[in-house]
Design a protein that fits this description.
Strand content: under 5%
Helix content: 55-70%
Shape: globular
Bound molecules: zinc ion
Number of strands: 2
Number of helices: 8
Number of domains: 1
Distance between the termini: 47 Å
Structural class: mainly alpha
Order of helices and strands: EEHHHHHHHH
Length: about 170
């Protein structure tokens, strides 16, 4: 077994690719790939896919470079919009993408928390029904946001600065 450097999931060690700016074990990235393939192939599962991407992203911080920092900032902003501002998942992702197109912002790196939350892809990937999966993704999101709470004020500030929510 091998512990994922990002989320801590304990999975059977394997060789394989990982994402350039979401650091993980190969096994964790592979499991996320299988999970997302199911999300996209079965409409009943697709509802939670945008939020699942946000969760996976914030549990797997990358190197300190512009792309990785922007990816982390935007995934946290999307998570915050869903959990604190009652945005629909797809609406949050679309709003954040539009903000990037409009402002071309550069984000500072946020120091990732040591504890990234107790729910991981390992829990979510084994859900047997669309309802169970949605519930797990919701718990995953809440657990991730809780883990990132030292930076929550910065994320809310960005949401106001880039006019995603009212000041
Ligand atoms: Zn992981």
């Amino acid at each position: 077994m091998e512990s994922c450097v990002g989320c801590g999931a304990e999975l059977m060690a394997m060789e394989g690719p990982t994402h350039p700016f979401m650091r993980s074990s190969a096994a964790c990235w592979n499991l996320f790939g299988i999970f997302m393939a199911k999300e996209y192939s079965e409409p009943a599962y697709r509802e939670s896919s945008a939020l699942a991407v946000d969760c996976y992203a914030v549990q797997h911080p990358g190197p300190d470079n512009r792309r990785a920092n922007q990816w982390m900032a935007t995934r946290l902003m999307s998570l915050c919009l869903v959990l604190e501002y009652s945005f629909e998942q797809n609406q949050a992702s679309a709003a954040v993408s539009e903000m990037i197109r409009q402002f071309h912002p550069v984000f500072d790196r946020l120091q990732p928390p040591a504890d990234r939350g107790h729910v991981t892809i390992q829990n979510v990937a084994v859900a047997q029904t669309p309802v169970a999966q949605r519930q797990w993704v919701q718990q995953w999101a809440e657990s991730c946001w809780q883990a990132w709470r030292p930076h929550a004020d910065q994320v809310r500030h960005w949401l106001r600065e880039y006019k995603l929510v009212r000041a």
